[in-house]
Amino acid sequence: MNAAESLPVTPAETLAGQKLSFPAALAGKSAVCVFGFSKEAGDRTKDWMARLNRDGVNAWSIASLEGAPGLVRGMIRASMRKGTPQPLLEHSLVMIKDEQAWRHALGVLDEKLPVVVVLDASGRTIWIHEGLFGDEAYRELRTRLTAVAGN
């Protein structure tokens, strides 16, 4: 994605029940967003989120449920709430709109993999990584975050 290309702005809701506009609600400080566009990718975001939260990073998990049937979405949210530690509920978002726009903006190639995005304080995309958690990818993420913090 071209850094000048803007991200979609989508209504979302945290697992704690707060409605917000994403990513506009994150403006003001850098953030790491870990997207899941399928159940498999969503399950795989947990490794990223565990490490990011352990290291005190402003991290958000984003689950896109647009493709799930409307009647099933409530059950999926309830299951997600149950499987998410209480302190992380406010940083766990559910989106039910604009999935194709997000997939395009993030350059998603494999919906079974999480997509990790570093945003600066103005909401500009600094780095995108599609893949499983790994030490090399995490080092690159930390390098990008350090650079953003220094600016």
Strand order of the largest sheet: 2-1-5-4-3-6-7
Strand and helix order? EEEHEHEHEEH
Radius of gyration, CA atoms, in whole angstroms: 14 Å
Average pLDDT over all residues: 92
Provide the domain count: 1
Principal-axes geometry comes out as globular
Structural class: alpha/beta
CATH class category: Alpha Beta
Question: If you had to describe this structure to a student in words, what would you say it looks like?
Answer:
This protein is an alpha/beta fold and 151 residues long. The chain has a single domain, classed as Glutaredoxin (3-Layer(aba) Sandwich). The chain is 36% helix and 24% strand. A seven-stranded mixed beta sheet has the order 2-1-5-4-3-6-7, covered by helices on one side. The longest helix has 16 residues. The model has no long low-confidence stretch (mean pLDDT 92).
Structural features:
151 residues, alpha/beta, Glutaredoxin, 7 strands, 36% helix, 24% strand
Topology of this protein?
Blueprint: E1 10-14, E2 19-22, E3 31-36, H1 39-54, E4 59-64, H2 70-83, E5 92-95, H3 99-106, E6 115-119, E7 125-130, H4 135-150
Parallel strand pairs: 3-4, 4-5
Antiparallel strand pairs: 1-2, 1-5, 3-6, 6-7
Offer a quick outline of the entry.
The chain is an alpha/beta fold and 151 residues long. It has a single domain (10-144), classed as Glutaredoxin (3-Layer(aba) Sandwich).
